[in-house]
Amino acid sequence: MAVQAEPMLVAGLIEVCRATIAENTDHLCALDRAIGDGDHGTNMRRGCEAVSAEGESLSSLPFPDAVEKIGLTLVMNVGGAAGPLYGTLLMEIGRELRKSDEKADFSQVLKQAIDAVARRGRAHAGDKTLLDVLYPVHAALAKRSPLGDIARKAERSADRTAAMKAMRGRAAYLGDRSIGHVDPGASSCALLTTAICRYLGEHRPQ
Ligand code: ADP
Ligand code: MG
After folding, report:
1. What are the residues facing 105 on neighbouring strands?
2. Any stretches that span the bilayer, and where are they (predicted)?
3. How remote is the CA of residue 35 from the centroid of ligand 1, in Å?
4. CA of 182 to the centre of ligand 2 (A)
5. Ligand nearest to the CA of 171
6. Contact residues for 90 (Cβ-Cβ < 8 A; gap 6+)
7. Residue-level pLDDT at 6
């Protein structure tokens, strides 16, 4: 997928992400209650509402600047571990997009950003975090999978975190007792990926 964007895309993506997190706030909090402190849904909702509140000014920015600013807003508003991690992801995507030309492959941009999240969290694939959705999403994007397949891969990858033992974040304190539960950050990441893929499928041809 080439890196191009229309101004309306930003507003639309912000809204579908906000709506998805609002619909799933309780579910994400329940997942986090099982292996964390129960706030992942409310943390994410606070961040999405802060981004929505800035929606108009964000849509008037060039796409890379808008994405970077969304990341900064998430860092400042989400709280908890997820804020700096999702914030890093978006800030790095924005910065990498600014450096790349119009024909650059988005999967390469995403890879740089995911690696920055991994460095920030000192986490790896298999540690039972949102990275266990982000890396498979990148792999699907890199091989030009259709949007529907990317979304399904994200959902399956989130489900697979149930079998993993948490090595990072609050869930790591539980050790083996974290096994059997889906990671909340992986779940929010899959929900957002699915919402974004659906929106892009409806609003722009691949
Ligand atoms: P907190 O754990 O501070 O309450 P949240 O509940 O909002 O923050 O987010 C928890 C999620 O953040 C986890 O489910 C996991 O996916 C992700 N996470 C936590 N720590 C790390 C880390 N060091 N690296 C990558 N992801 C992490
Ligand atoms: Mg939490």
Report:
1. 2
2. none
3. 11
4. 13
5. 1
6. 67, 68, 70, 71, 74, 113
7. 66
Q: In the structure, what pLDDT confidence band is assigned to residue 205 with cuts at 50, 70 and 90? A: low
- The mean of the pLDDT values for the chain is 94
Closest ligand to residue 172's CA: 1
pLDDT band at 56 (very low <50, low <70, confident <90, very high): confident
> Per-residue pLDDT averaged across 101-130, rounded?
94
Whose alpha carbon is nearest atom 3 of ligand 1? 80
User: Confidence band (pLDDT; 50, 70, 90) for 104?
Assistant: confident
| Cα four-point dihedral sign 54, 109, 112, 165 | positive
More confident residue, 35 or 80: 35
Q: Please tell me the distance from the alpha carbon of residue 107 to that of residue 89, in angstroms, as a whole number.
A: 13
Ligand 1 atom closest to 32 (CA): 6
Q: What is the CATH number of domain 9-203?
A: 1.25.40.340
The secondary structure of 113-150 as a DSSP string is HHHHHHHHHT--TTSSSTHHHHHHHHHHHHTT--HHHH
| Cα gap 24→56, rounded to integer Å | 24
User: Can you read off the two tokens belonging to residue 149?
Assistant: 């397949």
Helix (H, G, I), strand (E, B) or coil at 2: strand
